[in-house]
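Posting here for the record, re: S-adenosyl-L-homocysteine.
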Amino acid sequence: MPRKNDNMTGRAGKSKAAGSIIAADRNGGGRRSTEAGPAASGIYASGPAASGNDASGATSSGAASPGAAASGNYVQPAETTILTIILKKGKEQSVRRYHPWIFSGAISSVSGNPREGDVAEVFAWDKTYLATGHWAPGSIAVRILSFTKCGIDREFFRKRIADAYQYRINSGIAGRNDTNVWRLVHGEGDGLPGLVVDIYGSVAVLQAHTAGFWHIRQMIAGLIPEVTGGMVTSVYDKSEGTLPFMAKLNPANGYLTGGLNVNGTVITENGYKFRVDWEKGQKTGFFIDQRDSRSLLPKYSKDRKVLNMFGYTGGFSVYAMSNAGLVHTVDSSAAATTLADENISLNFGDDPRHRSFTTDAFAFLAGMDREYDLIILDPPAFAKHHTALNQALQGYRRLNALAIQKIKPGGILFTFSCSQVVSRDDFRRSVFVAAANTGRNVRILHQTGQPADHPVNIYHPESEYLKGLVLYIE
Ligand code: SAH
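Prediction output follows.
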């Protein structure tokens, strides 16, 4: 069963477990069984390689800049020691294939007195340098920032964030007139595991998922306006719900630079307007990751009766309203449906074609007749960990069976899973079983996923968390 989310605190599981953006405490999962890639020399290289490639001299102080925090020039505190981590023999293979996580079981020794969030240089058992990253005491012990020996300083992060921005310009996401909401940094997908930055016009919402990024949040907040050429003027830190609980960092959400400009809370996506509440809303305020699937909707919603289940603030509903005959939005959160109504009004005025229902999606589906031509199922993650995988698959089977059974003949189903532990194959199989149980003919129209501003790092399959199917149901 999905979690109810009345307080709008987050799509369960999408970003919480293990302090990782894509929620993975996989205990060794993610190691690919394919052949080892080329030696780690180029990927995520940043700045000139430091002299030497062995563990000797790996301990040094980060350059301190007293009082620089407020101006955004913060670097690791002066007393920060760069840790030296030596791996067990044979445990370097996944690092050589550029996988950005090192699990605690792979580690032979950690130097000195490590503190959560310290920068660590990682060496193979024979002292060959492998990578540099942030250390944490959990199962994912190191999140790798660079596979080339270099300083992890302000310039390092400036370049990484500038690369992320350039990638979004090159892929046609940033710099558009009709869309000013997009993700600037997507953790591992941008070589910055532990950091998420979403852009809402002139406001950036930052989420640190690791102590490493939380310690340097002020520096990152200084870099975002710089890298985006002044487009961003405020940076809001929303790390309260994403930092590992055990780190005891006592984070408090708030503005790191700038502040709230109420006029700025209406953003535009593909020309549609949405009011976004990044301070109280789920995730960073808006489900930016569904932009591509939402834009597919009007292709199928013309003159149809549309049911948007788990609708949140009405993302899919607004797109459907462009041409549908009727649109119903269902969400268990009253705060969400209130904002959904407001978003419909923002775009279509007081339009009787739309109605919201604050109720449980399963109960709504069970109680309805075959009245809708198009149904959207975009539930929260049903599983955060592998231990809950079977229960999650059961949830997807049950939900999809209900919708497939209840959709009108010739209907279209948009169905999604954002559970990172549920693979694309797992999800497709669940929907297949659901369809088979109803006995209806089902064809796959589209297989969708996360948009390009949520990039999948090819060396980190766990980055791919969002799976979607668009089905034609006879
Ligand atoms: N499709 C949305 C995002 C959905 S997030 C968009 O494009 O913006 C998942 C939503 O499911 C959340 O808003 C949450 O409040 C809601 N939810 C969780 N459990 C639910 C349940 N049992 N019934 C109805 N809604 C539920």
